[in-house]
Every structure is written in C-alpha cells, then in structure tokens.
C-alpha cells in the first residue's frame, strides 16, 4: 500500500512539473503571439493611414496657391469639406474617394489647418468635440467619447513655394481614423486567449498525467521485477538453507554411539551447500552480466572447438539418458570476439536443458553455421516442447515451465536467463521456436565474427 502511494505521489509530482513547464512555455508563446498580432495589426493600420495621407497630400499640394484666402481656395477645390463657421453637406468626400477599396471609408476623417495651426476645414464624419488647435506631432492617439482615434499629421506646401521649412508651409493635413475595429480585434484576441488558454492548459494537465504514467511505467516495472526477483531468490535460498539446518539438527541429535549415520548426513550437508553455492554464483554472474561490470576484455574464441568440447562433455549424459546427441560443425573454423568461459556457459545451459527435457530415445542436434557475418548456433531437440504462452517467459529469472521436474533435477530457473544475458553481453541474441509435444529449436546468434589468416589450433 505504501509502495503504491509512493509511486502515485511521484507520478503526481512529475505531472505537476510537466504542467508547470508546459504552462510557462504556453504562456510565453501565447503572449508572444498576442504581442506579434497586435504589433502587426497596429503597423498595418499606420501604414494604411500614412499611405492615404500621402495620396491626399500629393493630390492637394498642386492646387494650393499661396496668395489667396485659404477659405476661398478650399471651398473651390474641396467643396465637400466643411469649412469652419459654415454649414456642411454630406456629399461623398475626397477622403472617401481615395480610400475606396483600401479600407472602410467611414472610419477615416480629414482635417486641414493653416500654417498657424488654425483649423480651416474638416470632413463631415470627424468625431465631435475635437480640439480646433493643431498638435503638430506626426502621430497622435486621442480619446473622444470613450473611443480611441489615431491621427497622422503632414505638412502642406503651396504650388509656388519651394522652401520646405515649417515656417514657409501652407498648412497641415491631418488624417485620422477610429480605432474601434482595431480595439474590437484586440478584444476578440483576448477572448480567444482567455477561453483557449484554460482549455489548452486542461489538455496539458491530462497529457502530463498520461505522460508521467508512461515515464513511471518502466520504473514501476523495474521495481516489480526487483520485488519478484527478491521473492524468488528468497524462496530459492530458503529450500537449501532449510535442508542444511535440518541436516545439522539431525547430526546434533546423533548419539556418540552411532557414528555410522554421520557420514551420510554430512554428504547431504555437502550437496545442499554446493547447491546453495551454485545458486549464489549464478545470481552474482547474472547481476554482473546485466550490469555489464565485467572488466575482462574479449578475446578470439573458436566456436568449432567450443561446441565440440561441449558435445564431448554432454555425450556421457546423453548416453545415460538414451538420447542421440548429434553435432554438425563445419570444417572451416569460425572465430568471434568474446569471453570464452561465458560463451561456454551460454551454449552449455541450452544443451543441458535440451537433454534434460528430451525423453528417452530422443534426439538433440547441435549445429554451427556462418550466416551473414554472424555465427549461428542451433540446438534442436525432440523433447516435450514449450507451451506458446510460456515461450515469452522462459528467459525470465527463476521461471520454470515444469517446476516439479526442474526441482528434481536441481534446476534453479536461472539457466536461460544467464544464457540470454551472455548473448546480449556479446551483442547477440537467443530465440526459441517450440511446439508442445513437438520439440524446441534454440538459436544463438553471435555477430562479432572475425577473420583469421592463421590457425589457432
């Protein structure tokens, strides 16, 4: 229960960190996108205002004489503008003609000032209560009746004035537009971010919980394997230890007058001690292989000799079990880089299992071939076979297909786990193909084949 809570709390902390990191990244990204869109729209609006003002400036300057009354001149060349102190008509204006196809014409207004900054004329759609005194700053943002406006001011010169100084100017052209569409667009962006960001953050929370589960899964599986290994190791060690203790207790109960029973019990004690020592040695070897802590460098090993020695070693056992042990070894030697003692253990474990699980009058065939720059050792038997559901588990530590049979023969369930670890340590692999009642085929592939021009025999 405490372990489950520990993993759940760890997953929760990991998910919180995922969420915080992604939340910060999304916040900065959203802020950057928001600022980029605002700046882009603002700059586009200013370019449009400046472009329209420039077009009006170029259209008006040639018609502006320096010697006549400005009011009379404006009445003649811009009859649609409203002159200060006179009635206005609402006919289509010059600003409307120049903004056709560019933007909404009703969002713009035009104002003309003399060189002293006095308002002379304005378009009918200008905002109410605007100041009639000129602010000569090129760009201005004003607020009128809670509506923002952006204005651009440019100097006008008459047609016969060549001095571009401000004091020699005819007057000023001021073009403005309402910022209502811009503010509405910004408000829409804010609403999208206010609604979208929590939704996206919610998805991030769910995704973080899922991702933290994926990240914790290998750790949890490793922990479960460690727990299972500890339980299995304790179980395997308990049996010989219990037998040792029972034998010792029996020895202690033997009266001095009956020393003839002591030898048999001491032999039992030795067998259990050897079994315990063998189990501990296998555990240490497996741990060393999985940690890849072996410091012994690989050397050239002749697989032909190795397999031949194993066939010779197991021939007596095969004869006793009435099993035909066959070897198929090529004449040309095959050398690989590896640890010869580990390779010997690897092939020995597989051959030993094949003989152990093959009934009398059966057959075990061991073959060695060179295939695509890899050495392939194949052990084929006519034994009892392995159930399909067990084939994925036979390489796990302490796993036994037939526990009772394995215990009677002294097996620990570590043989194939050690074989697989040795194969991996040599950058190879071991596979099994089996059918229940139809025998098994184990294939060991070792890729580190080397070419030799001399005989190691």
TrEMBL record:
SMART domains: HATPase_c, HisKA
Enzyme class, broadest EC rank: transferase
GO biological processes: cellular response to phosphate starvation
Gene Ontology cellular-component annotations: plasma membrane
Reactions listed under catalytic activity: ATP + protein L-histidine = ADP + protein N-phospho-L-histidine
Stored InterPro entries: BphY/WalK/GraS-like (IPR050351), HATPase_C_sf (IPR036890), HATPase_dom (IPR003594), His_kinase_dom (IPR005467), HisK_dim/P_dom (IPR003661), HisK_dim/P_sf (IPR036097), RppB (IPR049835), Sig_transdc_His_kin-like_C (IPR004358)
Keyword presence, tRNA processing: no
Transmembrane segments annotated in the record for this chain: 15-37, 191-211
Gene Ontology MF terms in the entry: phosphoprotein phosphatase activity; phosphorelay sensor kinase activity
Protein name: histidine kinase
Protein source organism: Crocosphaera chwakensis CCY0110
EC number: 2.7.13.3
Keyword list, A-Z: Kinase, Membrane, Phosphoprotein, Transferase, Transmembrane, Transmembrane helix, Two-component regulatory system
Domain of life: Bacteria
Gene3D superfamilies documented for this protein: 1.10.287.130, Histidine kinase-like ATPase, C-terminal domain
Domain Histidine kinase: 232-450
């Amino acid at each position: 229960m405490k372990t489950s809570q520990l993993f759940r709390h760890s997953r929760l902390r990991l998910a919180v960190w995922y969420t915080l990191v992604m939340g910060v990244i999304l916040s900065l990204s959203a802020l950057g996108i928001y600022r980029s869109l605002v700046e882009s729209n603002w700059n586009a609006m200013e370019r449009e205002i400046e472009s329209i003002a420039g077009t009006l400036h170029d259209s008006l300057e040639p018609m502006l004489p320096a010697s006549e009354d400005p009011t009379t001149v404006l009445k003649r060349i811009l009859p649609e503008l409203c002159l200060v102190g006179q009635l206005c008509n609402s006919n289509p204006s010059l600003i409307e003609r120049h903004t056709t196809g560019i933007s909404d014409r009703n969002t713009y207004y035009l104002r003309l000032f003399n060189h002293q900054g006095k308002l002379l004329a304005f378009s009918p759609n200008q905002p109410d209560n605007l100041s009639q005194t000129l602010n000569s700053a090129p760009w201005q943002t004003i607020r009128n009746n809670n509506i923002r406006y952006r204005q651009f001011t440019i100097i006008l010169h008459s047609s016969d004035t060549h001095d571009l100084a401000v004091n020699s100017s005819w007057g000023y052209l001021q073009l403005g537009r309402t910022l209502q569409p811009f503010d509405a667009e910004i408000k829409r962006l804010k609403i999208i971010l206010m609604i979208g960001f929590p939704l996206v953050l919610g998805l991030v929370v769910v995704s973080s919980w899922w991702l933290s589960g994926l990240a914790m899964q290998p750790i949890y599986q490793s922990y479960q394997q460690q727990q299972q290994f500890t339980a299995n190791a304790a179980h395997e060690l308990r049996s010989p230890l219990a037998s040792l203790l029972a034998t010792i207790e029996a020895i202690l109960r033997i009266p001095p007058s009956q020393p003839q029973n002591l030898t048999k019990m001491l032999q039992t004690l030795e067998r259990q001690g050897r079994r315990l020592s063998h189990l501990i040695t296998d555990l240490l070897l497996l741990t060393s292989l999985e940690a890849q802590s072996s410091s012994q460098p690989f050397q050239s090993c002749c697989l032909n000799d190795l397999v031949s020695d194993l066939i010779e070693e197991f021939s007596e056992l095969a004869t006793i079990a009435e099993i035909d042990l066959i070897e198929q070894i090529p004449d040309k030697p095959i050398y690989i880089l590896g640890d010869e003692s580990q390779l010997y253990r690897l092939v020995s474990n597989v051959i030993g299992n094949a003989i152990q699980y093959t009934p009398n009058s059966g057959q075990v065939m061991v073959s060695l071939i060179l295939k695509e720059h890899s050495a392939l050792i194949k052990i084929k038997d006519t034994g009892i076979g392995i159930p399909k559901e067990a084939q994925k588990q036979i390489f796990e530590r302490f796993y036994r297909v037939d526990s009772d049979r394995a215990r009677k023969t002294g097996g620990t369930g570590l043989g194939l786990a050690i074989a697989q670890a040795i194969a991996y340590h040599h950058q190879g692999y071991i596979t099994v193909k089996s059918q229940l009642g139809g025998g098994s085929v184990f294939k060991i592939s070792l890729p580190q084949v080397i070419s030799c021009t001399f005989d190691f025999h």
